[in-house]
Every structure is written in C-alpha cells, then in structure tokens.
Amino acid sequence: MGEQKAMTIKGNMATAMGAKLCRPNVIPAYPITPSTLFPEKMSEFVADGELDASMINVESEHSAMSACIGASATGARVCTASASQGIALMHEMLFIASGMRLPIVMAVGNRALSAPINIWCDHQDTIASRDSGWLQFYAENNQEGLDLMINAFRIAEDERVLLPAMVGIDAFVLTHTMEGVRVPAQEDVDEFLPPYKPSHGVLDPKEPATFGSFGTPDYYQEFKHAQVEAIEKSEAVIDEVFKEYKERFGREYNKVTTFQCEDADIILLTMGSMTGTAREAVRKLRAKGEKVGLAKLTVYRPFPAPELIKILSGAKGVAVVDRNISPGAYGAVYTDLAGAFANMDERPLLKNFIAGLGGREIFVESFQEIYQKTKDAVTAGEVKEPVEWINMNEDVMR
Amino acid sequence: MTVKITIGAVNRDHGSSRIYKTGGWRTMRPVVDLEKCISCYKCYDYCPDGAIKKLDKGITYDFDYCKGCGICAKECPVQAIVMIKEEK
Amino acid sequence: MTKEDLELFASGHRACAGCGEGTAVRQILKAAGPNTVATICTGCLEVISTGYPETAWEIPIIHAAFENSASVAAGVEVALKELGRKEGVNVIAFGGDGGTFDIGFQALSGMLERGHDITYVCVDNEAYMNTGIQRCSSTPYGASTTTSPVGKLSIGESRPKKPIAAICAAHGIPYTATASIAYINDLKKKVKKAVETEGPAFLHVFAPCPTGWRHGSDSTIEIARLAVETGVFVLWEAEDGDICNLKITQKPKKRKPVKDYLKSQRRFAHLSDEDIEHIQKEVDEKCEKYGF
Asked: How many percent of chain C have pLDDT more than 70?
C-alpha cells in the first residue's frame, strides 16, 4: 500500500481530492456557496493535467444534473457538487438519475434553504431530497468527506446497486474549515475502485438503447419496486465496501458509529459535524457519572433501521437531533427512527430536538441540555413535548 | 406484450414499436394505381409512419402501419393514389 | 436499398394520423444516419415513441425531462469525447417548440454558448400539443389555443411568434437553418450540413399538427408548403451567426396570399378580413426584410 499523504485542507478540497482519486471522466458543475471550491479545484486539476477529465461549466444546477445524466448514460464516471438552492433546482433531475439507475456521485455542502436566504449550515437541502432515491452519506469531518466520496463511487457503481449517491459535508463548519486529512495513494484507490463498466446499457450506436422510457401503469410500480430493492441491497454492499476500505486504508466506517453506548441509558443520535461537539458533551457527562452515549448516523439512505434498533433498543431514552425540520411534522431522522421502532414491543422513549438551522451554533452545552431534557422525560416516563427547538434566541422572538 | 422489466427501464429492443400495428386505426385506405405512378416517391418521403415501401417501379403499402392519414394521396403529383373507405 | 432507405424511426409509433413530427423525425434520422445518439424532451415525441416495453428508435436515445434536451446532450457529447467514442458519431438534441422556445430555452442557450458539437433540432408545431394545445412563445398571432382562446375580448394569441432561429444564430454558432417538412430535400441537406458542422448547429423545423391546428390529417404537408409559399415561414440558413447575411433557401416566385394559409386551419377560423389584412401586412414587412 502506498503512503497516505498528510495534508491540512478545507472540506471542499477534501471531497474534491476524494473525487479526483476516483478518476471521473466528466464533471458538470455550477458554482454555489458553500460548494464552489469543489468545481474550482476540479477545474484546476483538469487545467493542470492532473486529472484526465472534462468539466462542463453549465448554466444552472438543473443543467448540471441533466449533463450528469447524459454523461453517465453514455458510460462515463460522473461527479458534481452542489448545495441548498442548487439541489432544490436540480430536484426534478435527482429522481430521474436514480430512476435510470445512474451511479452519479455528488459532493454537497449542506446549507439551509431560502427564505430567508441563508448560506450557513443545516441539512434541509439533502433532507428535502431524501425521497429522490439517492444514497445519502453525511460526514463528521473532512477526512470522512474524502473517504466517503471514494466509498460512494464504489457503492453506487456496484452492479447490485447502480444508484446515485450524495456525500454531505456541513456548510462552512467543514466546507471552509482547514483540517488534517490523510490522502490515499492513487494506485491504491485504483485497486479499490475498478473502472466503471455499466452492464445495463450505454448510449452507443453499436448497440442502440432507449433510456428514459415512458412507464405506463402496467410497469411503473415494478420499476419503482426494483429501484427500492436495489437500495435495500445496498445495505449489504455498504457494509462490504466499508470493511474493505478499512482493510485497505485503515479507517473504519459504519452506517451508525457508536460512542459509549453499551451501558447508556440515554443516547444522542446525530448526523454530520455536530457529532464532534456531541462527543465532547458525552465525555463531560460521563465524567459526572451520567450514563450517556452517542450514535452517529453516517448513512441516512438507506436508513439503517436494523442497526439503529440494535444499538438503541437497550437505552431508556433517545434524543434525536435533527438539523432539519418538516414543517407541520418532525425532524426527518426522528420520523424515520419512530417508523423503525413502530412495531417493537420494547423501545426507548424518543425525543426530537431541532438544532442548528441556518448556521445556528450547537454547543457542548446544547447537548448537555438535550441530554437533561431527555433524562427528565425518561424519569417522568413520558414525552410531553416530542419536538423541542434548541438555542432559540428568545430576545428576537415575537 | 408483456416483458420483464430491465434495470432503469433501459430498452435495448430497438425498433420494437413495430410489434404494434397502427393499421388498426385506419378509417380510410389508400389505393395506388401503379399504371399512373411515376415513382417519384414523394408519398414515401412524406409518410409520417414509414408505411410506404419503395419498389423498383412504384410503391406498395404496409397496411400493418398505414394510419390512413391521406397525405400520400394529397401529395401525389399525378393523382395516382385515391382514398377509399376502409372495410373491416 | 440505400442507406437512406433505413427506417431509423420505426413504424408502430403512436403519433396521430398525419403527424408532421412523424415525418420530420423520420427524415431527419435518414439524413443523419445510424451513427447518431439523440436526446429528446418530454412531450409528444417521448410519448409516441418510448412506451415501455416498446421503442420506435433504432438509434440510441435518452429522454430525461422536458427542459433539458440540450444539457443532457451536452453530457452525452462530452462523455463520448472523453471515452474516445465521438469520432463519426452525431449528437442530435430534439426539442419541441415548448421544450425549445420556452422551458428549455436556458439550457439551449447554454449549450450553444459552450460550443458543444451538437445539432439541436426544434420540431415546431406552434403550441403545447401533448398537453392539449396550450399557447407557447412559438404560437403565432391570431391562433386560438386552449390558453389563448378566441373570445369576445380576445383574438386568440395576442403576441407574435418568438424568432427562435435568429436568437440561436445570434449566439454566433457555426450553422443555423430553418426548414420545413414540405421541402424534404432541403430539410435533409440542412440536417447533413448541421451534423457535419463542427460545433453547435440549430435547426428550426416547421411541422404542422392536424390535431392542434385543426386541419385534415391529409393536409399536413400542403399547409407546411403554404406557410413557405405565403412567406409565413421563411426557409433560410446562416453561417457563423451572421444573421445579416441570411441565405434564403426557398424563395417563392410569387408569394401566395396569407389568407390561403390561414383559411386552411381552424385555429385561425375566427379571424376577420381586417385581422387577415393585418397579418398580411406583418408578413409583407417581414418578407421585405428578408429581401423578397
């Protein structure tokens, strides 16, 4: 195995370097804060001859995803990057990419959605596209951003899967923050990720195929069912690929990663960069003798229900911290988790906390508060307030 | 026709629309008088359905697909084609 | 049998009897040949030709959505080049008038501006026909559609047709042309020229719709021809976006009155003599600009 070069780089650079190591052929992209550094870096790699690929500097995110679809259907390995409004604009095309079973990989700088316009971090953009049929990965730090890009290509292109994947890194907290990462050697990534050779067809006059058929009610539901079967099959593929990645590169990934969960009464469930803060809170609470643990969701789609049930069933209470909100309902992770537990006889009390919207800070103290509120509910034996918002600025509220 | 679904609805069975006979839509039927036909093949060119076949001299219809639109009769420069009521 | 006898747009497609688009696509593919990859828009063309498990296409095609035939084609073209498979292969992006003039206009402009080696073909039947004859920026003045209906207070469509080919040419692309299904040789010549041109080409193909224009299914070609003979639709080509030096490729010896064209279709049936006179005047002015 080649040496992994140590570098201190921004999150966007980490996902760009991860993508570059995967040797994409075509990179259609449109700049948007906070992801812009990704297409900039990819353009530099191409301009300097470090990456044998073509950028397509499209005129919108809708066209970015459209060009991704055209290029992927032609047999190219394709990646792009976007965020927030850009993902909203390409929303229509996300469903078409997955429906056509095209393993496009997108790096996302997770950012809030307008209005009011806001460029800072939350997960609303990718959560709003959770039903688009894409695999979704969320990174805690820049190293994870880089590694997950490489894993995403391998998983997406697996014959059993053939679905697009997005890798989220939190706006500014990761996209623009310098962190130390280890960068795998090109030859090792080449061994890990063979060239993309789609067997379900490519656009080629030698073997004419029609992509994007009109699916009548006689067939549509079966197509959707097959697509869902593929994302279900990806569960095992993700485990296999993560395992192989650890063997080759030494870093361990799991759909759900636990910290001090074994004997925990209360478990905090997090996604993305807030996890580091939560871990610190758990350490402090443990030092005070509190039986608290932390579970980090790295893979959000497919939703790892069996893993979560296994990890969380023994706890008395689970605090689900959602950096998103479905207005009129709950945070997305809470909803999914409640669904996973719906038919279980033994289940912990679930409490939902909405935090960190539009770049609102989440502090160690925030998690201490979240812990305390969940503990209180457990002590009371009931959840009076299923959804609570954390770190509200009471001074500006009407 | 019922077939198994493919991955991503990719259809490699190119030209398979031919299994569907649009001739059944016809209410009028073209009849060509090959004596009059000058083999200019304008009818062939204009046919939206590819339902006219060129012969060395003249043309013939593929009534599996001819929808009976009547463009061929109207565009024939020597009035060699007439439309008659389709008898089923 | 010659290469052009190959039917690359197969019979059995579900276009209405007398569909102008059927003739257009069939002939365009004959001219372009089998070494072609095409993208198509959501709309009539997709509905009539791709109903799973059938396809009318003998060439590889991809339909993704309504507004992005041009940007999907951009991805195809760049991928073919990157994978070393572009040599000798044409990329054609098909769009209807809705997918070109309206919802796909931005993607089209981007594709043309970036200089992709793509022939964009707009098959124009002057309204949203697949959804049931709604007005589009391609709909001509005076036409009654379901969203620009004639009424006590309405003449039908109140705005003139958007000059899409001139707008595309103004991008400075190497080749732009207008064509008609009534002039097959001219159409095929232009298709060949377009696909042989290095870089983007734009073809605006006039193709009547019996269902939407409300004329007999046998009159599609006759009406397309009348549009040219009256000067309603002018056939021209331009190189390198030089719209000041258009080449008129079909100049009617003596222009027929616009009335002949308008009276052939029931979408114009409500127009009064004054309305027709007004349209005649506009056409006269346009033709004068074109120099005939």
From this structure: 100
Give contacts of C47 with chain A, Cβ < 8 Å: 214
Please, what are the domains in chain A? Answer: 5-249 (3.40.50.970), 256-396 (3.40.50.920)
* Burial bucket for residue C92 (CB in 10 Å: 0-12, 13-18, 19+): buried
Can you give the pLDDT at residue C67?
98
Question: Is 3.30.70.20 the CATH classification of the domain at B23-85?
Answer: yes
User: Rounded distance, CA C83 to CA C157, Å?
Assistant: 47
Residues in chain A closer than 8 A to B2 (CB atoms):
218
**Domain ranges in chain B?**
23-85
For the residues C220-232, what does the mean pLDDT come to? 98
What digits encode the pLDDT tens for the residues A6-17?
Answer: 999 999 999 999
User: How many angstroms separate the first and last alpha carbons of chain A?
Assistant: 60
Contacts of A230 (CB under 8 A, 6+ apart): A101, A160, A161, A162, A163
Q: In 3-state terms, what secondary structure has residue C96?
A: strand
CA distance C133 to C238: 31
Dump pLDDT digits (tens) for A365-380. 999 999 999 999 999 9
Q: End-to-end CA distance of chain C, in Å?
A: 40
- From chain C, pick out residues whose CB is under 8 angstroms from the CB of A203: 37, 60-62, 76
- Is B14 in contact with C55 (Cβ distance < 8 A)? yes
Question: Of A113-122, A178-187, A273-282, C242-251, which range is least confident?
Answer: C242-251
β-sheet bridge partners, residue A109: A169
List the structure tokens of A323. 């950096």
| Contact call for A28 and C75, based on CB within 8 A | yes
Contact call for A70 and C79, based on CB within 8 A: yes
Domain harbouring C104, CATH code: 3.40.50.970
What is residue C128's DSSP assignment? B
Question: Searching chain C, which residue's CA lies closest to the CA of residue A63?
Answer: C71
